[in-house]
Amino acid sequence: MSSDFSEGSEIGEKSLRDNIPYFSKAFEIARRFKVMNPEKMRSTYGKMMFMLQDSQSSFVKRETEFSLVQPIQLGLPTLSLI
To answer: Which of 3, 37, 40 is nearest to 11 (CA)?
Structure first.
């Protein structure tokens, strides 16, 4: 979860609800990485997509009361603001 042991242990001690921003940002970064590098993450990306699709079902959303999926942040909308 982290390259720093103390930071990783802090993340592991928190509840899942406290780590929602961390995990949703990590999934967004992984999705953006796959868009930029289509030859990478061939097997793990598919598994991650299945997990994220399952997390969007109405049953899971109702039980967990949160969503791990957030839109991919692209550079063009940011550049158009300048």
So the answer is: 3
